[in-house]
Design goal:
single chain, alpha+beta, 5-stranded mixed β-sheet, 23% helix, 35% strand, CheW-like_dom_sf, Chemotaxis protein CheW, CheW-lke_dom
Length: 175
Amino acid sequence: MAKKEALRELQSRLAERLQAARTEARTANWLAVESGGQGFLLPLAEAGEIFPVGAFVPVPHTVDWFLGVANLRGGLHGVVDLAAFLGIRSPGAGDAGREQARLIAFNPGLEVNCALLVERLAGLRAKEQLRAEPGDGRPRPAFAGARYLDGQGRRWQELSLAALAGDEAFLKIVG
């Protein structure tokens, strides 16, 4: 009898933990990263695996922000320095702090073998943790979504990886 009660209690706890995990997974909307000293929010549905920065092979005759290609889990991926692409840092200027740098692969569903080099991961963010900033009326690229402020007053720019993958300037890597 005690074994049946213990089993029911275990099943009940597991069911509660699974429900909590499902709820928590739904509340996290973005992967927060830092690049060029600025905060960016990448939609979790569009982001793929996160990799440490390893070796990549430079590709001749490409733009400075296209760092080369890397073998990530057996797949060849183009590596883009996010801050350099956005023009907020000179290409190669962020080489000093590579110990925290990471490569964020695009979700395979986007069908783009690309990874973004970011300076640091800043965790997950949910809409409840942020408040939207009003637009400033200045034109922004299609891949730049809304801007948000967190509880500490830090500004975060949402970037759509799906829109970035279709951006003409992002796809033109020949220099």
